Amino acid sequence: MSAIRIHPPTTALTTSIKHLTCNPNNLNLFTTNSRNFKRSGFRRNLTPIAMSSNPLEVCAKSSITVPNRLGDCPFTQRVLLTLEEKHLPYNLKLIDLANKPEWFLSISPEGKVPIVKLDDKWIADSDVITQTVEEKFPEPPLLTPPEKASIGSKIFSTYIGFLKSKDPNDGKEEALLNELSAFNDYIKENGPFINGKDISGADLSLGPKLYHLEIVLGHYKKWSIPDSLPHLKTYMKTVFSLESFTKTMPLTEDVIEGWRPKVMG
């Protein structure tokens, strides 16, 4: 099991997210080492990889409910999942998005996370970050085949539509259920993961979003995924139980508070 070390603040990091802004003063570093992962029901054969000479540097949102904890950004978790699944060491700098330090704003003028330093260059946007990591560290492979990359891609936007909806008859709930049902059917025929037996980047992107969906809709809408979608439920349980996921997932309280502004308008 990898040890976590707290270091004094050092340099700065940048950020940029296309889809959802995870808004950054508290600053702590945590070092994560490579290790072998065992999954409930699944075991991966790990391939030796060319590790970076130094840990990668990652800026992430800090918890707004508990000091020195990782915050609730699903796009940051996607990046951390990628690094964990590739067994890459990284230093994690937690940013209080309500009180962004000057060093952080100097490298991320928009004040967004996540951002990762690769080859002395700060890279923003979870799509770009994960693609760059895949190209630089191809083993173990996490690339999703192009024909499967869009599976489940509309779930997050329909979730937000339903979450913000004030009219029960506007079709937003139905739209979400349609997307979830389509994904349920896909996993039934092609699972356990989007790319079959092997986890891929698509799962690492969708997993954190489904985690937020489950918590937030349960809290604010008293809504839960229906029992008529058992394959989706099994998929979520499988992804949420990955060691990489449990290590990088945010606190439930942070997820609830993080979405409060969108719910309250």
Automatic annotation (TrEMBL):
Reactions performed catalytically: RX + glutathione = an S-substituted glutathione + a halide anion + H(+); L-dehydroascorbate + 2 glutathione = glutathione disulfide + L-ascorbate
CDD domains, A to Z: GST_N_family
InterPro entries xrefs: DHAR1/2/3/4 (IPR044627), Glutathione-S-Trfase_C-like (IPR010987), Glutathione-S-Trfase_C_sf (IPR036282), Glutathione_S-Trfase (IPR040079), Glutathione_S-Trfase_N (IPR004045), Thioredoxin-like_sf (IPR036249)
Secretion signal, residue range per the UniProt entry: none
Pfam families membership: GST_C_2, GST_N_2
GO molecular function, one term: glutathione dehydrogenase (ascorbate) activity
Name listed for the protein in its UniProt record: Dehydroascorbate reductase
Organism: Lactuca virosa
